Amino acid sequence: MTMKLKQLTTAFLAAGLMFMISCKGKPKDSDVQAAVTTALQTTPGVSADVKEGVVTLSGTVSSQADKDAAESAAKLSQGVTSVVNNISVTPPAPAPAPDTTAASMTAPADVALKTSVDAIVKDFSGIKADVKDGVVIITGESKADRWKRLKIALDALKPKKVDASGLTITK
């Protein structure tokens, strides 16, 4: 009976010792969380949650390389048993294409002149105006007296020239 008691006591002590070693050797989730958070500081937009040593990564990065780097950094942290990588890859929006419309290719002075010309011409039905390289180009149809008033108003804007070759003048 003494032998059985010794064996039983030894078994309990061994079990207790194993329990203490296993509890002491396993890091707390809060410690793992701190280590992973520190490791992920170089990857903005990524966060981690730790439960029983399993790290779940989430957030958004701009490339697959950033996603992979975050996972590798988390795996290297002490106490991590596995990593679930839920990071989304969203590449940055492409740069806008250059505007090649006629308006964008016009000199800023032409844009300002065109705005002033349009404000004057709106009161003269049947007449259209455009501006190119500082020259006001008039097209359409007008009576002589109305054309004279329009010409005076346009000259006051000081364009390089007023080209009325496309204008038909009636009496």
Describe the overall structure.
The chain has helices spanning 2-25, 29-39, 64-76, 102-105, 108-121, 144-155; strands at residues 46-51, 54-61, 82-89, 127-132, 135-143, 161-170. With 171 residues, the chain is of the alpha/beta class. It has 2 domains: 27-92, Histidine-containing Protein, Chain: A (2-Layer Sandwich); 102-170, Alpha-Beta Plaits (2-Layer Sandwich), CATH 3.30.70. The protein has a 3-stranded mixed β-sheet. A hairpin with a 2-residue loop joins strand 1 (46-51) and strand 2. Helix 2 (29-39) crosses helix 3. The longest helix has 24 residues, at 2-25. Residues 8-21 have low confidence and may be disordered.
Topology:
Layout: H1 2-25, H2 29-39, E1 46-51, E2 54-61, H3 64-76, E3 82-89, H4 102-105, H5 108-121, E4 127-132, E5 135-143, H6 144-155, E6 161-170
Parallel strand pairs: 2-3, 5-6
Antiparallel strand pairs: 1-2, 4-5
Helix pairs in contact: 2-3
Protein name: BON domain-containing protein
Organism: Chitinophaga costaii
Domain BON: 24-91
